Amino acid sequence: MNGFTQDLARQTAEMQACIHNMPFNRELAAGTLNADVFRGYIVQDAHYLEGFARALAAVAAKAPGPEEIAQLAASANGAIMAERTLHAHYMALYGIGDAQFRSAEISAACDHYVSFLLRTALVGDFAEGVAALLPCFWIYRDVGQRIAGQSAPGNPFAAWIATYSSAAFDEGVDRMLALTDRVGTAADEPARKRMHRAFARSCWHEWQFWDSAYHRRGWTMP
Which domains does the chain have, with CATH numbers? Predict the structure, then answer.
């Protein structure tokens, strides 16, 4: 993490502290999170990762060179593989079949986050797209590592914790941070401002996604 991503971290320090301290993540670390809450979260997260992979592919298509294309395309593939492994594990555990998953309504928080990423990826420039994608990597790595340091043996969410605190995930996050630093350093001031705005908005969506899952929110109706 270098100068530009350090600036992003400072800009969103309060929001990221809120994410670390929110009930969902405290209870997940303690192993006391309600199983139905986690079940709902896993379903929404699987829907989210499909959209996230599409956004990664869309940003990859705007990349300036083959190295960036390969990195983002590999991350898109990784997002799909995470769905097929980690989510398959928990869906089997909770008895959620493919038909049941596909018929599950996407929550407002999930829909809004995916819509924001896809709009930014398709309408914004490459730099803005990279910044919007970064929080999903960075925040999950930081949350996963912190929880791994607190979690006791036998935690029912051990597979989730192991995924996001793993060395392989850590390396992927470092690559995304390095890419963001390169792009942010090369960008002009208006582009850097767009990157800051996109990054902060995605951090808010990360908080909203977990908060919505914890309170089991769907769509607020009049």
Answer: 3-215 (1.20.910.10)
